[in-house]
Amino acid sequence: MTRRRTSLADIAARAGVSQATVSRALNGRPGVAQATRERIAAAVEGLGYQRLTVPQAHPAGLVGVVVPEIDNPVFPALGQAVGRVLVASGLSWALFSQGPGGLDEDQCTTTLLGHGACGAVMVSGLHADLSADASRYALLRERGLALVTVNGYRPTAGVPSFSVDDREGMTQVLRHLVRLGHRRIGLAVGPPHYVTTARKVGAFRAAHRVVLGHDAPPALLAHAPFGLAGGRAAAGALAAAGASAVVCGSDLTALGAVEALRARGLRVPEDVSVVGSDDSPLMAHTDPALTTVRMPVEELAAAAVGALLGQLEGEAVEPSDTLIAPQLTVRRSTAPPGAGSLSSPRRPWRSAR
């Protein structure tokens, strides 16, 4: 009978460590104590482990990075950042993107489990949808999958979460716009049943009270679908409400807003200033270059992978909500409201003919 080949799981069990630690030690990666390396070396020798000279189809230490889409450039950028940290930690990774005609989140995690993955980083997934059942993550943990979520904390998910500090970002945006002279500032965000939307709305209202000294008028808040189309729809409503500046929940929403404002004969930023969120790749090269709140991609990636490695090392898993501060990047899509500003009583907004 053919003898079963020794696996990383066998070495991990013999040495009393995780498979991820074995992988890091065998690949000479940092983050493994010398005493632990010696135990792993002894286990390797005792079990007669020999590494393959060709890549395995599904190597031990595989982590899935699941993003909602790749059309929005911030998601592949975040996925790549997570992947770099995983590789530096001795792990392999695979990017899963959802979307029409593709896999949904549950199918992604089922595929990962079927391929023996040890963990997953869920980015803006069902955990961020208040209408979805977050208990699915506890079930995945019970099946041995280490989990962290990014952008969209749900206590019922039962896992560590890492998100952008929207209140800090929104405060930076409103202070910038008020310094420029804006007083009627609108917010264009996604559907209200998402955690990220609710947080941005709450942050906008809180910052509005602090920076402008009063509550934001309800007419200056517009919900619309995510993406370009949503930005186009929201910009029309906010323009009609007399906004001289529009703050958007994403960069794609901001680009849609710019399109819609121009279609109405309005100039950006001379008539209406526009602010995005994420600082996605290429936002410095749009027309005009977009003022936006930079998502701390590298910081989110490092923190999320750090928590995932802790789980793989056997640390207790507790739900937690870690906020990481973003940074406003000022470019050319914001300016003082000029003579053509919609907030000026001399030139009220009219529908484009």
From TrEMBL:
Lineage, highest ranks first: Bacteria, Bacillati, Actinomycetota, Actinomycetes, Kineosporiales
Entries under PROSITE patterns matching the protein: HTH_LACI_1, HTH_LACI_2
UniProt xrefs under CDD domains: HTH_LacI (cd01392)
Domain named HTH lacI-type: residues: 6-64
UniProt cross-references to InterPro entries, sorted A to Z: HTH_LacI (IPR000843), LacI/GalR-like_sensor (IPR046335), Lambda_DNA-bd_dom_sf (IPR010982), Peripla_BP_I (IPR028082)
Keywords assigned by UniProt, alphabetized: DNA-binding, Transcription, Transcription regulation
Region annotated Disordered, chain positions: 328-353
Molecular function terms from GO: DNA-binding transcription factor activity; transcription cis-regulatory region binding
Name of the protein described by the UniProt record: DNA-binding LacI/PurR family transcriptional regulator
Domain of life: Bacteria
Keyword DNA-binding: yes
